[in-house]
Amino acid sequence: MAWFQKTANKVKAKTPPVPTKGEGLFHKCDACSEVVYKQEFEAHFNVCRSCGHHEALPVRRRLEMVLDPGSFEELDTELAPADPLGFSDAKKYKDRVRSTFKNTGLRDAFLSGVGAIDGTPVSIGTFAFEFMGGSMGSVVGEKVTRVFDRAYEMKAPAIVFSSTGGARMQEGIFSLMQMAKTSAALHRFRSVRKPYVSVMLHPTTGGVAASFAWLGDVVIAEPKALIGFAGPRVIEQTIREKLPEGFQRSEFLLEHGMIDAIVPRPELRQKLSQLLSLLG
Description:
By secondary structure, the chain is an alpha/beta fold. Helix content is 32%, strand content 19%. Helix 4 packs parallel to helix 5 (172-189). It is globular. The model has no long low-confidence stretch (mean pLDDT 92).
């Protein structure tokens, strides 16, 4: 039985409504309530210039931010989730996938392909949290695996941006198997002695954090990103103790040696270029 399927793009995503005059001109920061022009906010990659708060960034905009203009070639676009378990809760899994595609225009929670950073070819992929919380099912695992496989074939660096709630419960054990599958592909890639840079965004949790996301040669995080296996509330309820302030945030992890660096979003392209020139 196939755990994913190839499908033609028969259903068109919804076209966003045309805003009325004056609507959407300003943006209010969720952290400090600073109000700025939305165009200025988006030009700064959805980072508040006043307090540095990082808000969600559309998945394709993230790729535009780090890659050379016009260099990205998206691959694996034909892959779409199957429903191996016939899963249904409040809604059938296949219906949930279909409606999420209509709302986001994404086939699944991961975009992958090839591009270049300052002329250096890279195999790259990024999670899309807007698709079912960036959860990892069979398609996501396959796409991540192909990022490493292409990097192996190209003898080029691999870069993965993680932003996820973990394994996708609607696919059960098929989802959990992707932890081993992606880690095995990464192990094979190691033989070409090219760097794998893992960039952890807010949030990076569950099976993704417990597998390839924390296996980078260099592990980078955005400021104040929540990173860990289980969330703080789950841990507190389990051990019945209050956790330290800022527990599982990127600053806490850096202090305890769990990640290598915290890089603000506007500086990320420069940092990746520097790492690739040193390691690639």
